[in-house]
Amino acid sequence: MSSAVITGIGELTTNDPGLGRLRDAALVVEDGVVAWVGAARGAPEADERVDVGGRAALPGWVDSHTHLVFAGDRTAEFEARVSGEPYAAGGIAVTVGATRAASDEELAANLRRHVAEARAQGTTTIETKTGYGLTVADEVRSARLAAGVVDEVTFLGAHLVPPGADAAGYADLVAGEMLDAVAPHVRWADVFCEVGAFDEAGSRQVLAAAAARGLGLRVHGNQLGEGPGVRLAVELGAASVDHCTHLTGADVDALAGSPTVATLLPACDLSTRQPLAPARRLLDAGATVALASNCNPGSSYTTSMAFCVATAVLQMGMTVAEAVEAATLGGARALRRTDVGHLGVGARADVHVLDAPSATHLAYRPGVPLTWAVWRAGARVR
Ligand code: NIG
């Protein structure tokens, strides 16, 4: 058994209800897990000692929504958008073409590059989705490649009806043969429930089929307008409904009265020139909120959770404490994980040290790369 004490922590955000936020703290890691947390002066001896010199530490980011199995680039689409073109889900088809044409090696290298980029910025848990294959073979390939690299994999065969396909026939394929082939590689299934993608009936069909095969459910909902996504996610007991940009009062009430997490994607809202999701309304109503990057080449090409936190604080009315919690513990809840997103005893030792005295600097110094050190499961990854 190997142990290490990380000490000299000026401010430690634990997200543990009994511990809260500690000053002059230390934590002991044994075999990749937090074994002790408390005041630095009372810290037990360990095999290794790292003094972080009064810097702030927090749990590693839990990025519960990304689309990292892709090839190609959509700079031209982005340029058109910032010149006034609306975001349309149809751009997904461009990435589908590039992804199908890429080799396994190219896809794996691109995936690993983005995961490494995220880790270097403090992200220690990453969910990613299929959804740029949209054939049985390409969806299985995406899931298989992701399963070897990220923490959580989601099947998103219901991302777009492929150009030329019939919507009902494609939903039957996704809910049948495709789901059977992909299910062994994934924990979750998701649908893009939106005008231009899957309607309520098709979304329900796919989600019900996934639940019947034991997969957990997630929904892309209410991204480009009000719609049935949130209601469906809550009704079917989805772990999370993601985007939540356009919500009715009934949607907010439904989320507040359910365990379904509202995962907000501020970088996507900005990149697609949508309004920012109503974080304050959700929090005030009592909903559980997560923040995630939604890194993908179309609507949100960033791995920066710090950018999402800064945006949530500066433009969405969240406090720093709420935003940091949403990007760590909120993400863990959206993935129904109890081992990450906090630094209580027994948690996976995912520790993110900032080159700053307080987590407040994430919003106070927006855009400044503050990550100083990162441990994942007790191993230093930066
Ligand atoms: O979460 N909304 C659907 N899926 C992605 C966008 C993917 C794309 O444009 O390539 C999203 O924003």
UniProtKB/TrEMBL annotation:
One of its GO terms (molecular function) is zinc ion binding. Zn(2+) binds at residues 65, 67, 220, 294. Keywords: Cytoplasm, Histidine metabolism, Hydrolase, Iron, Metal-binding, Zinc. It catalyses: 4-imidazolone-5-propanoate + H2O = N-formimidoyl-L-glutamate. GO terms for cellular component: cytoplasm. The keyword Metal-binding applies. 4-imidazolone-5-propanoate binds at residues 74, 132, 159, 223, 299. Binds 1 zinc or iron ion per subunit. It comes from the Bacteria. N-formimidoyl-L-glutamate binds at residues 132, 296, 298. Its cofactor is Zn(2+); Fe(3+). The keyword DNA damage does not apply. It is an enzyme of class 3 (hydrolase). Its EC number is 3.5.2.7. GO terms for biological process: L-histidine catabolic process to glutamate and formamide; L-histidine catabolic process to glutamate and formate. Fe(3+) binds at residues 65, 67, 220, 294. Pathway: Amino-acid degradation; L-histidine degradation into L-glutamate; N-formimidoyl-L-glutamate from L-histidine: step 3/3. It is found in: Cytoplasm. Residues 57-361 form the Amidohydrolase-related domain. InterPro entries: Amidohydro-rel, HutI, Metal-dep_hydrolase_composite, Metal_Hydrolase. Belongs to the metallo-dependent hydrolases superfamily. HutI family. HAMAP family: HutI. NCBIfam families: hutI. Catalyzes the hydrolytic cleavage of the carbon-nitrogen bond in imidazolone-5-propanoate to yield N-formimidoyl-L-glutamate. It is the third step in the universal histidine degradation pathway. This is Imidazolonepropionase. The lineage of its organism: Bacteria, Bacillati, Actinomycetota, Actinomycetes, Pseudonocardiales.
